[in-house]
């Protein structure tokens, strides 16, 4: 039974019994894994020493476990909590954005498929959500990094329908099904996957793509860009995740 020791973030968990948990962890070098942590919720000194009192959602720690070819669940034997992210439990907005990020990560990544860049982006986001003035900025960088890591970053320079260079204009159309911007579309076709986008939103996404600082961007502008990327993810998955209305309840990009 191969043994592993990994940095990991808990993105799903459920009670398997009164004392044990089934968890989904995003690990740094093994990707997303599902595991059974027997005895993780026990309060005995030995159990607390091995599992830090349980594996909590949106926390980061070091996990030790073993995999078996005959089981879809890894056996988790240790969890050393390193970043509890207390701000995600004391602030509702931070918690909701963290849950959205966990939802999107879980849906976009396949099991046992290494994505160290996505792990790093999620770890950075969960810590950055402590700053209430920069939460939308941090979420924008995370969503872009996840889409890029999965090979789905939206097309910003050429028309998603024709492949031609996009002309400079005040507004564009984002066609989520086509995976990018387009210059023109019949107004009657505007729907949940086809949105009108302001030029400044597109310019902000260009800056994110190039890795430029975006601290000077307004929260509203970052929110509009986050809506665009959320709509992009929804089209890729062909379904709306339970946490997506958090971003999509407002209109406009």
Output the keywords.
253 residues, alpha+beta, five-stranded mixed beta barrel, three-stranded antiparallel beta sheet, 8 helices, 36% helix, 23% strand, elongated
Summarize the structure.
Helix content is 36%, strand content 23%.
Structure in words:
With 253 residues, the chain is of the alpha+beta class. The protein has eight helices and eight strands; from the N terminus they run βββαββααααβββααα. The strands form two sheets. The chain has a five-stranded mixed β-barrel. A three-stranded antiparallel β-sheet has the order 7-6-8. Helix 3 packs antiparallel against helix 4 and helix 4 runs antiparallel to helix 5. The mean pLDDT is 92.
Low-confidence runs: none
What is the beta-strand fraction?
A: 15-25%
| Helical percentage | 25-40%
What is the gyration radius calculated from CA atoms? Answer: 20 Å
For the terminal residues, how far apart are their CA atoms? 50 Å
Summarize the helices and strands and which ones pair or pack.
Layout: E1 3-15, E2 21-27, E3 31-37, H1 45-51, E4 60-66, E5 74-83, H2 87-90, H3 92-108, H4 116-128, H5 135-149, E6 171-175, E7 180-182, E8 194-198, H6 199-209, H7 219-237, H8 245-248
Parallel strand pairs: 3-5
Antiparallel strand pairs: 1-2, 1-4, 2-3, 4-5, 6-7, 6-8
Helix pairs in contact: 3-4, 3-5, 4-5, 5-7, 6-7
